[in-house]
Structure formats: structure tokens, C-alpha cells
Hints:
alpha+beta, Helix Hairpins, two-stranded antiparallel sheet, 13 helices, 7 strands, elongated, Chain length determinant protein, LPS_length_determ_N, transmembrane, protein tyrosine kinase activity
Amino acid sequence: MNEEIQNDEISxxxxxxxxxxxxxxxxSQWKIIVLAGIIGTAIxxxxxxxxxxxxxASLSFALEDEKSGGLGGALGLASSFGLDLGESGGSVFxxxxxxxxxxxxxxxxxxxxxxxxxxxxxISIAEMYIINNRWREQWAKNPRFDTIxxxxxKPRQExxxxxxxxxxxxxxxxxxxxxxxxxxxxxxxIISVDVVSAHELFSKFFCEGLxxxxxxxxxxxxSQKSRENMLILERQxxxxxxxxxxxxxxxAVANDNTFNLNPALNVRRAPSARKQVDVQAxxxxxxxxxxxxxxxxxxxxxxxxxxQIIDKPILPLKKEKFGKIxxxxxxxxxxxxxxxxxxxIIRAFKNILNKKS
Length: 357
């Protein structure tokens, strides 16, 4: 028992001695460590000057859909008691599906090809991105890309392969580095969209444009069936109304033709009687169609979801800059740690080689 305690004490002493030995070694290399710290601090300071500030445009909104109100209320009530019942995966406009819709290439490209007004000049957001990142200066030497321009209103299907490739690169950059969509709290049905970029106006215009495109798509899709039904009823109503007007005119013409007709010639009154039957039938049909058309309009208004914008990006946007002190501390600290690690590894290898020799 005493031998085990003695062995433990010897091991602890050896550990302390080893620690002192390593500290002495690192102190003997203080010049290298200090020089590395100075170099790292200078690198961090330089990076803080080179690094451009980034601007964050944030927009929050809420979706109100009467059709899904019952289920949404049940899920909200369950979540308030700490129960997670999950969300219906059938709708593209719920939960994580909605976030993916915002990041989809379709929505991002539609936003990029939409136009904004800057200094009285209309320009597409894609063209704005290209100018901000100085891509045209790189393309100036390549005639293949020099003439490429993204003008708003041009049909997407007419784009060349090069245009598709450029849009693909812009989409990848934005979806990975700039765009963030989600609910800040699962219990709150408020969705936040954040766009981060080194250009203030681009962040603002792209954020607002993306929400508009998704909103239009959302409203159009959710109310598509009701809108189609209403349009069909309106066409049928117009058609029956024309037939009714034609029948009324036909009755008048037939009555004119049978004016003061001999009572013995009743067969000549048949066209007028047939026209009157058509008038009565078309009147009944038109009355029902008008009723159904008005009901369809009410249904469309009821099923058209409301998108309520809560907060919009307002200039000046939130600005985040890599500070000088932060750059110096991180640069110096990381460099010193790397140098110390390198010195330790080198000394350890030397000790191993010396023991083998």
C-alpha cells in the first residue's frame, strides 16, 4: 500500500517536473512567440480594414388562411401544453416547406429577374448583383459574356445556356450565404426572412422582392380552384345572357310577324310560343347562374389567404462590421496558439528521435 502511494507521488512529481520543463522551453522561445503574435495581430488588423461591412434586411409576416384555421388552432393549443403533434406535410406552405419554397430556385430567379428603380433607372436585381460584385470587369476580356444582360420582362425560356449558368451561380451564392428563412418560435406563426449582403440596397430590394414573389405564388395557388370555378360561371353567365337577349328579340320579331293574324292560322304563332319558352328557360338558368356566380365570388374572397406584413426593411439597414480590436485579438491569439502548438510538436518529435538514437 505504501509502495502504491509512493509510486503515485513519484508520478505526480514527474508530471510537475515535465510541466515546468515545458514552460521553461516555451519561455526560452518567447521571441518567436512574440513575433508570431505581432504578425498575427497585424494580419487581423489588415483583415478588419479589407473586410467589407455586411447589411441585414429583415422582413417578418404572418399568414392567415381561413381554411386551415381549425387545424392550426389545434396544433397551437397542443404546443401550448408542450405537445408536439407535428405539421401536415401535404401543404407546401407549412413549416419547413415554406422555408424551402423561399429558397427554391424558381422563387429566387423570379426575384432576380424582377425590376427595381434606382436613381430613376429601372434595373433587374440580377443586373444589380452583377454590378455590385464587379463581374462585368472580369467579363470585359471575354466576348462570350460581355454582351450578356439580364433585362426585366424577358421570357425565361429564351435564356441561353450561359445566362442559365450565371443565374445558377447567383442562386447558389444567395441561397447558401445570404438567405435565411424561418420561424423564430414554433409557437408563433410569424415568419422572418433575412437577407445578408455587402450592399445595403441589394439586401433591401432582394428581401422585399422575394417575399412579394412568394406571396403572389402563395395566393395564386391557394385560391386557384375557386378562381377557376368563378371564371367558368362568369363565362356561362355571359353565354346565357346573350341567348336570353337573342330569345327576347326573337319573341318581338315573331309577334311582329303575327300581328292581326287570322285566328284560323294558329300554326304561325308557334315560333313566337317557342321563343317565349326559350325566354322563360334562359331566364331561370340565368337567375341560377348569377346566384352561383356571386356565391363563387364570396368563396374566392373567403379562400384567398391574407398575407400580413409586420416589419419591413427600413434604411439604414443593420450594419455589421469586423472591428479592428476584434481582428487584432483573434489574429494575434490564433497565431500564438498555432506557434505554441508547432513548437510543442517539434520538441516532442526531437525527444522521440533522441530516445531512439
